[in-house]
Write a structure and sequence with these properties.
Blueprint lengths: L1 E2 H7 L5 H9 L3 E3 L2 E3 L5 E2 L6 E3 L2 E2 L8 E6 L27 E2 L8 E7 L2 H8 L7 E8 L4 H9 L2 E2 L2 E2 L4 E8 L2 E8 L6 H8 L4 E9 L2 E2 L8 E3 L2 H10 L6
Parallel strand pairs: 9-15
Antiparallel strand pairs: 1-4, 2-3, 2-5, 5-6, 7-9, 7-17, 8-9, 10-14, 10-15, 11-12, 13-14, 15-16
Helix pairs in contact: 1-2
């Protein structure tokens, strides 16, 4: 027996947090009965579970995907405005959903999975997964500004954690740096550079933990190997079967 929200997450329908919202809002039925209590446990092999009137399929095969997201693409399952979403680039039989997000203009490495437990742990701030971004800003950054970024920047939602910032290139009145953070606040890097008065021209996530974009062109994806998934799980203290 497993908690209902965990079964929904494992089916790839939504993250566990979103599944809890669906239950509370009366969107979930078990064997034809609406369920609104989060504590309910079900047998995934015997219970008929539907979300928004659609019966969910319990997927035994877990898959995790690395996508090299282009800019001007929404990190979402669908978009009411009809814009291109990351799902438009994925062609697998499982229903996968993004692990965290990259904003509309940001490109680079994005993970998608149907493993709810893996996704929840990867997104949880306590596990502090390093993410490296390549940033091009307008203007020439001084060492003093880099030190401010390294120590943490006061944003409207609090002080950022210290960041690792490295020079890459200076030319044409622009500076390219690599910055490593482990937080996942909305538009965090863009906001950090706005505070120090160096607007971001281009932003690309080039590494997530040990994973890089090597061999994955822009707009393409690949499935992570079993060894890569196990290595990810080791980072977040999950058993690998």
């Amino acid at each position: 027996m497993e908690r209902l929200q965990k079964v929904i997450a494992h089916a790839g329908v939504a993250s566990r947090r979103k599944a809890e919202e669906l239950i509370i809002n009366g969107k979930v039925q078990v064997n034809g009965e609406v369920v609104t209590e989060l504590g309910m446990k079900v047998d995934p092999d015997k219970s008929l579970i539907s979300v928004d009137g659609k019966v969910i399929a319990i997927e035994d095969e877990k898959v995790t995907i690395l996508l090299n997201k282009p800019s001007k693409v929404i990190t979402s399952m669908e978009d009411p405005q009809g814009r291109t979403t990351v799902i438009d680039f994925i062609d697998v039989k499982q229903r996968v959903y993004p692990v965290g997000r990259l904003d509309y203009e940001t490109e680079g490495l994005l993970l998608l999975t149907n493993d709810g437990e893996l996704a929840n742990r990867l997104m949880h701030p306590s596990y502090e997964i390093d993410k490296i971004y390549e940033v091009i800003v307008r203007g020439i950054l001084s060492e003093d500004v880099l030190d401010r970024l390294r120590k943490g920047i006061q944003l409207d939602d609090g002080m950022t954690s210290p960041a690792n910032v490295k020079w890459v290139e200076k030319k044409n009145r622009q500076t390219k740096v690599h910055i490593t953070i482990h937080e996942g606040r909305n538009r965090q890097i863009r906001r950090m550079f706005e505070v120090v008065n160096f607007p971001v021209i281009q932003l690309k996530r080039i590494q997530y933990g040990f994973l890089t974009l090597k061999g994955t062109p822009k707009g393409k994806f690949r499935k992570l190997t079993k060894n890569e998934v196990c290595k990810l799980k080791q980072l977040i203290k999950l058993e690998c079967h």
